[in-house]
Design goal:
The complex is a heterotetramer, with two copies of chain A (145 residues) and two copies of chain B (248 residues).
Chain A lengths: L3 H18 L4 E10 L6 H11 L9 E7 L2 E4 L5 E3 H4 L5 H9 L4 H4 L10 E5 L3 E10 L2 E5 L2
Helix pairs in contact in A: 1-2
Chain B lengths: L7 H4 L3 E8 L7 H14 L4 E5 L7 H5 L8 E2 L3 E2 L2 E2 L2 E4 L2 H4 L8 H14 L5 E7 L6 H9 L3 E7 L3 H16 L4 E9 L5 H8 L3 E6 L4 H4 L3 H6 L1 H14 L8
Helix pairs in contact in B: 2-11
The chains are: A alpha+beta (145), B alpha/beta (248).
The structure holds adenosine-5'-diphosphate (ADP) (2 copies), magnesium ion (4 copies), nickel (II) ion (2 copies) and zinc ion (2 copies).
One magnesium ion (MG) sits at the interface of chains B and C.
Chain lengths: 145, 248, 248, 145
């Protein structure tokens, strides 16, 4: 599942864009929310981030990962359920499709109560940058983005 | 903060010209024309990508006859398979023949995901086949791809022209450069030429109604022999290549 | 809490049969057939409403030739004007010829608003003309109108059938009763009959490709004389009236 | 703009449905958020509510109206503006169209900065029931719905 590299690139690019905008000289840490639905291979993502950060403002950055459980709510019957309740029913290629495009959950997952594919992903869809800490002109800056 | 948005311009950086094939109206030939145009540009030695953005009803793969076993390769992202010299991306690789009950918001989220992980590489043209309507997909492609051009498809029917007029007004408001209008399924005299004039949009030419098209679908060699394909070549030469659109 | 949702069943309570005309695919004739069906049911002395739900590209008014000055009347809500014995509601009354850049979420919000304030009164049939796709509008009509029936339109093209197959699978999953499939723009032999059989959906009949249709658009008298209109009468008699659908 | 009657009906029906569900015997008050975009004629709405409540569980209910300013955010340039900034530019029939269907704002209103009709209605779209107070078996019940 080596497309984690592409996700790492998008994280690094985004952090660099924000650092530039906020005049951050050196990024100290980046907090990344990892939605369970996308089934990221965390080790690969970490390796990619550590390789990509070299020679950038992120050189010294620590990456903090916060895993977020995936939860759904049915628009038809309002039932709420968890990805972990239904994950075992997915075939390998179905799980991989969702890994690339989390919205394919609507193709391969149905409400366990009423069978509808028309549901909301309440949380845990994919990757989000939840905070960046860095140094501007010597003083630390905290940002909850 | 969504990390996907800032990488998209990066992923599309080495693509010279991005063209969204739009109409507002369904069933006017957007998918047939997008697919044929990609094939023909490739035969003219251009590097071409084709991205089927109709995530409720993808169908470029049917026009091209892309076999089911062909899949993108995972390599630091997704590399779209090359079929008949065209780099082709579609949600169909993943959803196969299953229902796609994606709401507008989900569809654009899926499009953003694919835009952010697909490695097109160097291209002369990326053709984007849009769904009908002037809804999420059209609005977000305009928002996300700042240098996209619009290529408008219509039939001569009254039922198409009113919707296409709404679309053209919208593209002008949003300052999207319009390459022009292609009239598809023309028979007899054209009202579209006058329509284009009235709307102040370039009329690029007409493709005839062709009842041999249906049996050619899925077979690229047959397709390229149809009257539609042959008429399209002239439009590509005069209206797509070297045309930088009228920014409205 | 949204007060509109609980009034909708109330507003539709005196309507015997609600029919959503759907396809997944654009340009297959949903709008033409919805409009003609409403006219013909009215001529059979049925009380009929027609609601154009394609809020990006409304077009029933073009088929019917509804003049621009006709407007709903405000009276404890909105009363749809009666045109040729059909109570007709459309966003076009309000938006005229302007662009309608509504995202899926906005479109359904607008639909919910109109459903909650429109007073249809007693009707035998309410025909809902849906946009292409299996997105917000289709999903929300199914969610909001629990007793809606689906009437599926397709052309014989391969490009329509794959999308229609996705739609039928979805309707079955969502347990929407399907009245059947109408094959539109038929020429020569039908593949749709076999398709319907394979999908286990009733085949209701075919409407021929008719090149006199275009000039009849907007003129009800001419429209009712077309081959399409005449073929549709038989389908209405045998396939719409007294058909309660196969709940899948 | 007498379609306020239809809106009043939907409010009363919804409150009655909730009251039934929560076993409320008598509704004491209903708080209604009135989004500015819809340009409700409050006097007509009040009259309609007072007429419709007769002979129902709402007989004794007080209606409390909380007006909510309408605000937009452009998806193209992120500009935020208020309905009151642009209201004066609407023609009578345009304002009436928005009165019936607030989403028609996308037809008649554009971002004052960049001209885009692709914006989010941040708040003040239409009518919402924000709270219901009532009596269940003699004891008052509060509900923030
Ligand atoms: N020039 C043409 N002559 C005959 N049939 C055509 C022509 N162009 C398109 N078609 C047919 O019209 C239908 C709609 O075309 P399609 O490309 O799917 O439209 P869209 O993508 O706009 O919905 C298809 O069945 C297609 O085969
Ligand atoms: N039976 C028919 N013969 C010829 N043209 C048709 C027929 N049915 C529909 N059309 C034409 O096909 C186009 C698409 O029809 P429309 O009703 O707008 O489809 P949809 O609502 O599915 O998008 C229109 O130009 C219409 O006039
Ligand atoms: Mg298409
Ligand atoms: Mg859509
Ligand atoms: Mg239509
Ligand atoms: Mg839509
Ligand atoms: Ni991967
Ligand atoms: Ni009113
Ligand atoms: Zn459910
Ligand atoms: Zn703006």
């Amino acid at each position: 599942m080596v497309h984690e590299w592409a996700l790492a690139e998008s994280i690094v690019k985004t952090v660099l864009d924000i650092a530039k905008e906020r005049k951050i000289k050196s990024v100290l840490s980046v907090e990344i929310a990892i939605g369970q639905l996308q089934q990221i291979e965390l080790d690969i993502l970490k390796d990619a981030l550590n390789e990509l950060k070299r020679g950038t403002l992120l050189e010294k950055a620590k990456f903090i990962f916060v895993e977020e459980e995936a939860e759904f709510q049915c628009r038809n019957c309002n039932n709420i359920w968890k990805f972990s309740d239904v994950k075992k029913d997915l075939k390998a290629d179905e799980a991989e499709a969702i890994h690339f495009i989390p919205e394919l959950a609507h193709v391969f997952i149905k409400c366990p109560r009423c069978g509808s594919p028309d549901f909301i992903v309440l949380k845990g869809r994919g990757i989000r940058i939840s905070a960046i800490r860095g140094v501007t002109n010597g003083s630390p800056s905290f940002d909850n983005s | 903060m969504d990390p996907r948005l800032s990488i998209i311009p990066e992923r599309l950086r080495h693509i010279d010209k991005k063209i969204m094939v739009v109409s507002g109206k369904g069933g006017v030939g957007k998918t047939v024309i997008s697919s044929l145009m990609a094939l023909e540009l490739a035969l003219m030695e251009k590097r071409v990508g084709l991205f089927d953005l109709d995530f409720n009803g993808p169908s470029c793969h049917i026009v091209l006859g892309v076999p089911e076993h062909i899949m993108p390769v995972e390599e630091k992202g997704l590399i779209p398979p090359t079929f008949r010299k065209v780099k082709f991306m579609s949600i169909r690789y993943f959803a196969k023949e299953r229902p796609l009950p994606l709401r507008g918001e989900d569809a654009v989220n899926a499009i953003i995901e694919l835009l952010s992980i697909t490695r097109w590489g160097k291209l002369d043209y990326l053709i984007l086949d849009l769904p009908p309507g002037t809804s999420d997909e059209v609005l977000d492609i305009i928002r996300l791809i700042k240098d996209v051009y619009a290529l408008i498809i219509t039939t001569p029917s009254k039922l198409a022209l009113e919707t296409v007029s709404r679309l053209i007004q919208l593209l002008k408001i949003l300052k999207v450069p319009i390459l022009g209008i292609i009239e598809n399924m023309r028979r007899g005299e054209s009202k579209v030429y006058d329509f284009a004039k009235k709307m102040d949009v370039r009329y690029l030419g007409a493709l005839p109604y062709d009842d041999t098209l249906e049996e050619a679908l899925g077979d690229v060699n047959l397709l390229l022999e149809t009257k539609v394909a042959k008429a399209l070549i002239n439009i590509i030469r005069s209206g797509i290549i070297e045309n930088n659109g009228d920014e409205q």
